[in-house]
Amino acid sequence: MGEIDISAPFQSVVDAVSLFGEGIFSGEKTAIKKPKPHSVERVVAKETKLHLAQNELNKLKEQLINADTTKAQTIVELEMAKLIVEDLTQKLKTHNVLKDIAIMATESAKYQAKQFEETRNSESEGNDVDLGTARVQYTTAVTELYAAKQVLRKIWEEHNASVEAKDLATEQEAKAENFANVNMERSGELSKEIAILQELIQQDKQKQSYKARPEESAKKLLALKRSLNPEVNKNLETQLVGIISEIEALQKEMEKSKGFRSRFCEDHYYDAKESLVETLKIELENTKREHLEMKERETGTESTAGNLHVKLRKAKSELEEAFAEEAKLSGVSDEMISTIYQLSLESESAKHEVEETKRNTEELKKEAEVAKIELEAAETKLKVALNEAEEVKAAAARALNQISMLSEKINAACSPTSEPSAQITISRVEFEKVAAAIAQVETVRASDEEALKKLEASQKEIEDMKTANHEALKKAEIAEAAKKAVEGELRRWRDREQNKAVEAASQVLAETEKTFESSLQNYQIRKYKSAEEALET
């Protein structure tokens, strides 16, 4: 029989025993454990759960991206709304002043319309047609005013709708933020669950690998059993018995060395004890010295700690002041936003009032043109009345000539030689002519007086209309000039106020930043110094 090489599978018998156990020599068959079939199903189920969780996580990520996009859109809309509010604030003060001007102009226009209607009512029956046209114009103006009010109401409704849309946008933004936060929390929970599932899957894989190892070792063991001969096993047993005897001999030698070591230790114990006492004395003195130094340092650190505590209180007070200033600034900003909103509403109302004043001025201009036309008609009537008066004067002159001629005839008929008691006798025809001439002269005088009265009344009416027209034009010019002046002044005032507000806000922000940075730097320096002192101690 040839020699068998046993160095390849293991190096010693002890290794073989520890590797294969006592079952090799006892002849017992190792039970091969087969993996349970339901562990694979468990892994598959967990992998499916992981896949579903990943799909749900992807869906939540998409929802989170959509929420971010909606949030960005709402932020852009809010920025646009803020810009619109700023534009409206710039036009605010001008509209407030124009509001007062519009109210004054409307009151003056109403007064002029009332006065014009009274003057129309005081005219003669011949001017009823003009009064009717004026009433028609007045009714058309009233209808136009009603239509303008309807348009104003629609604009106001649109403004309210825009405000509601803005509120809805803010609510949607808040909902989007809440939804995003919920999605973030849900995604975090899902990521945690996915991590747990991955860990469980890894553990199952490790368990399967651990379960597979005994099978491999059992297979290797069977292969080794088949490769080894019984003679080799006997040789191994003999070698094992020899090794055990050697181990017992080594144990005996170790017990002998322990006794020798104990004697050697007793000899050196006394010397070590004395040297240890000396070293302990030296260490005691060093510890006393260090204790005194530590006390001194403690006193110093207590003083520095007190100083640091005072500085910390100062820093806390400075931080509280900075936070209070920041809260004040936020309150001021909220008040500014509310005032800007109110100013925007007032600016819209002032816009409509300015439009109404423009319409009223246009109506006054139209009425002035109508008054001019009526004035021209009155002037033509005055010319006709003057012509009639001239004709009446001519008729009166003719009648006076006739009367003078009749009187001359009467004087010629009466001789100077006649008796004073004699009666003048004229024919009936001549008497009737004289009576008719006298009546004609009286009628001419009466018509002349009436014509003069009408002429004076028409002249007075023309003068009144001229003055009213002149006053209306003057008021319109004054309103236009005041409007331009107010717009320029308000533009300058707005620029000044904006510059002042910007400067004040920048100063306040700079001061708050400086105070906060200085307090923060002081706090950091103090903290660093305290840390250095603590490290030194």
From TrEMBL:
Keyword presence, Transmembrane helix: no
Source organism, top-level taxon: Eukaryota
Coiled coil feature spans: 43-70, 233-297, 347-409, 438-496
UniProt entry keywords in alphabetical sequence: Coiled coil
Database matches in InterPro entries: Web
Keyword RNA-binding appears in the UniProt entry: no
GO BP annotations, alphabetical order: chloroplast accumulation movement; chloroplast avoidance movement
GO cellular component: cytosol
Family: Belongs to the WEB family.
Name of this protein: WEB family protein
Lineage: Eukaryota, Viridiplantae, Streptophyta, Embryophyta, Tracheophyta
